[in-house]
Design a protein that fits this description.
This protein is mainly α. It is 83% helix and 0% strand.
Length: 134
């Protein structure tokens, strides 16, 4: 795995921070916590998608297998970062941290993790198809 893909994950943190700040300032008070979380998840997935598409086109991984490794790495880094932030800086208890993964209660954060895991492979396939002459 190339170090550039670890570095390539770092802007996802910046995007997530901007998205979370936007959620809190713009629509959390009017929508409430759950609906603001859900809307923010959709916005985050969209922004991540644009960025991941750009990274995959710019750095062009060598194979589909490499993109699977990239997606897995980014998913794990995201989980570790989010859990660390929740525990260390927000002082949230474990039930609150794991509650963000409870899709049955409308918490759709897990969709972000799945997207981060599969998007590199998806965009690699799309871009490879565009580069390959018919």
């Amino acid at each position: 795995m190339k170090w550039k893909y670890f570095v390539g994950w770092l802007p996802l943190v910046v995007i997530a921070f901007i998205n979370g700040s936007f959620r809190q300032v713009v629509f959390q008070s009017s929508l409430g916590d759950l609906h603001a979380h859900q809307l923010s998840t959709i916005i985050g997935i969209t922004l991540f998608g644009f960025y991941i598409y750009w990274i995959i086109s710019r750095w062009q991984p060598e194979s589909l297998k490499e993109t699977m490794h990239i997606g897995f790495l980014w998913m794990v880094l995201t989980i570790v970062f989010e859990t660390g932030m929740a525990k260390l800086f927000q002082n949230r208890d474990w039930s609150s941290v794991f509650g963000d993964y409870n899709i049955y209660e409308g918490r759709v954060w897990i969709l972000v993790l799945l997207w981060v895991a599969v998007a590199p492979s998806l965009f690699y396939k799309i871009q490879k198809k565009k580069r390959t002459p018919a």
